[in-house]
Structures are given as structure tokens and as C-alpha cells.
Amino acid sequence: MATVPKPNELVIDHKPPQTGWMDTPVVFRPGTWCYGAKTKNLKALDLPNPREWSPGDEDWKLPENWKEIILEGIRERLEKYRSFKIFMDICVRCGACADKCHFWIGTGDPKNMPVLRAELLRSVYRNDFTTAGKLLGKMAGARELTMDVFKEWFYYFFQCTECRRCSLFCPYGIDTAEITLMARELLNLVGCNIDWIAGPAANCFNNGNHLGIQPHAFKDMIEFFVDEIEAVNGVRVEPTFNRKGAEVLFITPSGDVFADPGTYTLMGYLMLFHEIGLDYTWSTYASEGGNFGFFTSHEMMKRLNAKMYAEAKRLGVKWILGGECGHMWRVINQYMDTMNGPADFLEVPVSPITGTRFDNARATKMTHIVEFTADLIKHGKLKLDPSRNDHHRVTYHDSCNTARGMGLMEEPRYVLKNVCNNFFEMPAGTTREQTFCCGSGSGLNTDEFMEIRMRGGLPRANAVQYVHDKHDVNMMACICAIDRAVLTASMNYWVPGVGITGVHELVGNALVMEGETERTTDLRGEPLAGMEESEDEDL
Amino acid sequence: MKIYNANKIIPGLIIFLGLITFPMWYNMGKAAPPPEIKFDTPVIQQMAVKQCVLPKADMRTGHMQLLNEWRTQVVRNGYRTYVAADGKEYNMSLQNECIKCHSNKTQFCDQCHVYAGLQLGSVPYCWTCHIAPKEAK
Amino acid sequence: MGIKFSLLVVAALIAVVFLGVKVVGMYYVFGVIIPYLAILTFVGGFVYRIMNWARSPVPFVIPTTAGQQYSFPWIKQNKLDNPSTTAGVIGRMALEVLLFRSLFRNSKVELRDGPKLTYQWEKWLWLAGLLFHWSFLIIFIRHLRFFTEPVPGFVHLADTLDGILQVGLPGIYLTDGLILATVTYLFIRRVVIPQMKYISLPADYFPLFLILALATSGILMRYFIRVDLLKVKELAMGLASFHPTVPEGIGVMFFIHFFLVCTLFAYFPFSKLMHLGGVFLSPTRNMPNDSRMVRHVNPWDYPVKVHTYEEYEDHFREKMIEAGLPVEKE
Description:
Chain A is mostly helical and 539 residues long. Chain A has helices at residues 39-44, 66-80, 82-89, 102-107, 114-129, 131-136, 147-157, 165-169, 176-189, 195-207, 215-233, 255-258, 262-276, 298-315, 327-340, 369-378, 400-404, 410-419, 450-456, 458-471, 481-494, 503-510, 532-538; strands spanning 248-251, 280-281, 319-322, 366-368, 394-397, 475-478, 499-502. In chain A, 45% of the residues lie in helices and 5% in strands.
């Protein structure tokens, strides 16, 4: 694996090269591309062309008629998606999107400008699907699909995190996420996925979650956190699994079960549900909120997402509660009901504690935990002691997908302001709908890609640096499992001294539970503000 | 061929085409030849050589610029005499010179101005200062 | 390369009409046949493009949500940037089409040592874009005075407002200056900003040059190389009423102007200029964010292979039983 240059050694040059983009070949430099999908993972998902290959190789072992397959794939998608057709046709190259992409800001590579990323595909579209392109060729911005072009697609469409920031600024709403989605579907037609996406998707398909945690292990792991909670405040929470007849099915990304700091967020969920006495169950079958199928193809997204409703139906729950995750919520908000609905076997979510009917989820029957908690706090149903988060000076990172694919912006802020005393916003233009990607979304959170991840993480980190310098911010809250994993790395790289937390970890810290012993530490086992001395005494 | 969202797209398209082809249905096939310019005022009829200050074609396209220039010469510079190409001198005055011959404002000025789409009363704004000639109806 | 090529094409167009009219005397071709062909191409091409887009469905609800969602009564929804109703979408589209809402968000990033980023105010593109498009529309409406008899009130209104300065004779139009200035700006930024230059295609320069030539020829004709407007209107009215006629003695400047506009019309449907129609069909803007509230149907939805719970339990049954997890079949 390539080593990543130190932050001050990283060269970023925003000047485009001398050669035109069609004449500038892509260089597969280590650290800037992800490993290719392995045979077993493609096989597990019945995806085409399973084979051993590496994007670094000269020969990608594509089927002989790969070009036909791709062109036919484009034709099919043009017929199926108006978005694709429109976005291929109406770009005027005004350049408003150019400096909105975190990857362009962090690399200066002109093909990371959203407009040019789209042109990589658009040029082939023009060549084979428009009269002007057929007649005028390069003059009309058309070029033939060659192996070099195809490799360029792989490189740059797995260097886009589908964050949609560019689409916000585009006067026609051209959404690069949509174009990247199409390009990745095309790449998948001949077996050119990356393994960091194909692997989790295969795991999720067969084992129920991206990490491949088997049912007994899933139960074990959550029970481990039950012990951890008890160690913090003496309360023993009692989660149930695959329980029929529960009122609510709870689904969250499996990353929260597996790795810090997501695990602390998971502890927060467990404590909250226990305290309000929610009649809920976990599922080991639908044990994944996230959806790496979304990063593969619409079909794969549907295949993985199907488990949520299927399991809700089997267990006979009334509605579904979803945990903190980014792209999971874009899938639930914009795709799930269309793909796997109608969920007519469920009821419109009603909070059993406050009686609030979640009208905005009346069709999907799935509510976001931050909405759920915000409602609890608004109705005064939670006893909170925000001073237990006084050792944190907190800022909030909007995930791309909950911001630009849903619009969940005030709810998490409301919760945060109620569970901690020191909350600071990052500068305008870097938050809410204009939020910057963590740099590793859409399945690119893999180690071999670290240099580009850190480069892509620069704009977010830079905004954090600002509040770190100005307000001593030492903790960034977020509601996305990928964020929790990757921002930790990005902060260590760019802004050491800033930690990452889920919103519900802070809720768990602040939540005053019935029968709890006095807390001296937070969920991470770190001393609470004012408790540092008693810690020392214990030693 | 299936059209999706036809209930919105087709009305939208029709409205657009309606707007863009507005002149074609607004005129309803009626051609509108330009008005005949009338030179039959008594003064002109008595002229031996029916000649304006500039050749006819130049007056048709450039009279407004000439008048504007006259206005500047008279009002700003105090010159009152215009010497035509043939050496003939004219008094640079709309009311006292032009109207002497072209006393038929409605037919001579207004007809064409209306046809060219100018809004009488505001464009041209000659008559906001000058007194229009009295015409026998 | 793109610049030279586009300039050359526009120059060639002007040369063609100049030679065609001045030398060969093809008045009827440039005065009647080409204009009719151009408008036919425009209408036919435009309808074709829109219908071609309409032939593809919108399978999923994918608005870019640019503000707070519809949530609790005590949280204020951003109804225009994240609409959940049809009325909200109409509002959003109106802002987008009439005021270029999205472009108004524009900012400029600057990379400093550190590396450190700053975001700067940059609304020039928005301003120039907006002024350019509105100028074009007003100029278009103004020109209807040649194609209508009697001239309707809204055309007079456009004319009066545009000429409100009452400077010079014929009075100068605000839009004439604005369109020249904004097109020039749009061109200059393409050349001066390195990223813009890098992404620009001939198809980006050509319409700019074409419109620049179009506006310039119009202005020249109004103030300097004047033509007989009565005859121009006679020609225009002939076309609009389907009694085409080419009066003698219209200056070549008119034919240059007219041919350039015909070129623009004919070129329109096959170019990026179709963003005029496309913006209305953009799914990230014209859909309400109501997909958790109302089910949207994908017309080509098909069943996919899933891993059922039964298959899952069959695979893990023993481990599940051992761990005390409930199973369907013991």
C-alpha cells in the first residue's frame, strides 16, 4: 500500500495541464485508485465477468465484445432514465460546478471537476448517440470508446463520492451522482467494480450486513455493548433479536456494531430505547442500514434493500426505525418505497411515547432516529444532563445524503443543542445543503485509496480547523456511519485533536437513566468534565 | 411510443410553441403591406422639383438622425442653416421647414411610425415639444 | 482551437450571406426559404428533443434537497428549496427559471498555503447570465413589432421599458448594451479562467460568437448601416402571414442579421441551447421531496433476485439456535 504524503508535503495544483483532457492519459498511481472486485464477491452477487484482475494491470480481462456491452448498456439506460438523457444533453459547461467538488479542491485534477467527470461519459455518448457527434467527431466534443477511455471511467467514477454538492450549484440541477451511478452500472456490466464495494455488498446479500457478521456473532457483539453500558452507569439494557410481534424494527448500519467510534453511538441507541421502554427488536437478517448496492447499480440497491421490508413483514412489526447513516437515508427517502414498497403491511409510524404521528414517513413507514429523538426531547420525555458532554466542544457535520438527498438539517441540531452545552457551527458554505463530503463516501472508504481520501477530505477538515482554532472545537458530531469511520482518519491527518462522534453517543452521555449510578466517565470511558481528579484518586 | 408525464410535458410544449409562433396565428394569415406615403400636400404639388433635403432613400432610413442632428445644431450650437448637397439652404426647423411641405402628419409621419411598431405619443417624441400641424380631416 | 474554429464558422456564415445576397442576388433564398426552413427546423427539432426526453421515464424521486425537509410543525420547512408539494415545486422552478436560484449560490474557492481554503463571493456569472437571458428575451419580444400588425401592447411595453433612457435617435436600448457586455463577459471568462478554458468546446464558443455577431449586426443596422424598416416589416409580415415577399432595396446588413438569427434557430435544437427546455425536465429540480409520504411508481420495475429470510435461516439455523435466536423452523 502506498504511503500518504504528510499534509504539508501534499502538492495541490489547481492549474490544468498543458495537454487537452482528451489527450491527457490517466495514470494509475498507487493511493489514487481502489482494488478491483474479487472473483468470489462478483460470483456471490451473480455479477458478470468474475475473474482475478487488478486495475493496475495492462490487461483488464474484459470480454471480447466489451465495447458492444457498454454501448448497449448506455442505450438501455438512456431509455430507462430521463435524468441520464437530460444530463447528457443540456450541460452548457458554465463551470459553476468546477470548484464545488471536494476531490477537485483537494487534487486539482481537472477531471475531478464535475463538468469534466461527466464529459468523460458525455463524449462517448455524443460519439455514438448524437448526430452532431457522429458527423463532427472531436469538434463536437465526441470521442470513441477505447480501452483508455474505459479505464479513465473506472478511475474517475470511483473518484466521485456521489455527494451531489455539484448538483446544488448547477443551474439545471445536473447531478453528477446520477451520472456516476450510471457509469458504475456500465463498469459493472463487464465486471469492473471495486472490491471495497463488491465485498460488502456480497456480505450484505448473504449474511445480512456489509461486514459479514453472522447472526450469533451479531447478537454477541451487541451484548458486549450491554456490558459496556453497565460498566458506565450500572444499568443493564435488554435488547431483543428477531423477535416477532415487537412494535418497532430497528435497523442501523453494521459499522456501528463493529468499529469505534460508531459503537458508542450504538450504545446511545440501546440506552435511549431502554430508558423510554420502546418495544423494539433488532434483526440479524436485516442487520444492515447502509446499502453498498447503491454504489453498484440500481438493481443491486434494490436487492439489498429488499430485506428491510421483508423482515418487517415477517416479524409483524408496526413500523421501522432507522439509525444514523447517510446514504442509507438517501436510499430510504428516495428509492425504498418505489423499489420494494408499498409497505401496506406496516402502519404510519407513531411514537409510542409522545403520540406524535410521523406524517412525513406515512408511505415508507420508516422514521429516522434523529427525528424520533428530537420529538422525544421536544415533548420533554427525556431527562438530560448536557453537562456530561462538557468535556466536548462540539461542531456538526451534515452528511451529504441526509442534507442533499433528504433535508434533515434542523433535527440533529436540535438534539445536539439539548444534549451538549458547547455547540459551534462551521462556517456558512460548508454546512447544511452546502456541506462538504467526508472524502470517502459511496464505497471509497478503503485504505489503498487513502491519499485521495485525505485530499477529498480537505475542504471538510479545513472548516473543522477553523472552528478548532476559533472555538477550541474538539469533537465533530455526525449522523453517518461512514463519516464516523473515515472522518476519524481525516481528522487525525488534517486536524489532530478533533474526535468524531455520532449524535446518539452524545445523547447516551447526557441521558439520565432510571436507577443509574453516578457516572464518572462518558461512554468511551473518558473522564467527564470535573471528574478528572476523582479518576486520579482511583488510581 | 410511450410518453411519460405527458399531462405536463405536452401542455408545456404547446404553450411554448404557441408563444414562439405567436406572429403566425396572431396575424391570421393577413399580410400587411406597408402604408403608402402621401406626398400630395398642396405645397408639394406646387413644387417644380419635388426634392427634400436629402434623397428619398436616405430620408426613409435616416430622417430621425438628421432631425436629431438639426436639433443639436439649433438648440446647442445656435446654427440655423442647413446646406443641402445641391447648395440649397434650408432652415433647420421641424415646424417651420419640414412641416411646410409635409403638413399631412397623420399620413406622412404617423402611418409609417405605427406600422414600424413605434408607440405614438412616446416614440418618436417630436411632438412632446413641437406643435403638430393642423390638418383638415 | 475551439475558438478559432467557431470564429471561422461565424465568419463563413457572414461571408455566405454577403456573397449570396450581394453578388449572386439570392434575395428569395435568404429572405424566405432559409427563414422558413430555420423555423421549421427549430419547431420540429424542439418538439423532437422534448418528446425524446419524455419517452424516458423518471423511475425514482431524486430531487436535490437544498433546505430543511418537511418535518415537525415546530421545525420550519424550507418550502422553496426543499418543496414537498406541487405548489412548492412550481415556486422552486419559477425561482430557478426566472432568477437562476441555483447559480445564485455560486461561490469561488481559493487555495492558500497550509493548505487553507477560502470561499469568496462570486455572483458575476449569475448576474451576467441573468442579464444576458433577460436581455435576450426582451430583445426577442421587441422584435415582434416587425412580425405583428397591429403591434400588441406588450411589445410596445417591452420597447418603451427597454428604451427608457431616451438617449439618441433612434433611442438606445438597454438590452443592446447589456447583451453585448454579457456575451463578451461570458466569452472572456471562458478564455481567462484556466479551468473554463480547459473544459470549453467549440460548441461553447460558437453560440457566443453567433449571438455576438447577431447583436452587433442588429446594432449596426439600427444606428449606422441603416435599412428601410418599412420594407423589413413588409418582408417579416409576409413570412408571418404566409404571403412571403421580398421587397426590393433592403440593405445587405439586414440579410446578415436575418441569416444569423436563422442559423441560431436552426442550430438551437441540436445543441446545448436546449437547456431552455431541459431545465423544466430536470428531475433534481422538478420533483417534490415527498417520497417518504407518497409512493412513486417506477414503470419499468422488475423483480430482482433477493436472498430470502428462509435461505438465510437455512444457512445459519444451527448457529442461530445455539445462540438462542428465534427461528422459523426448529
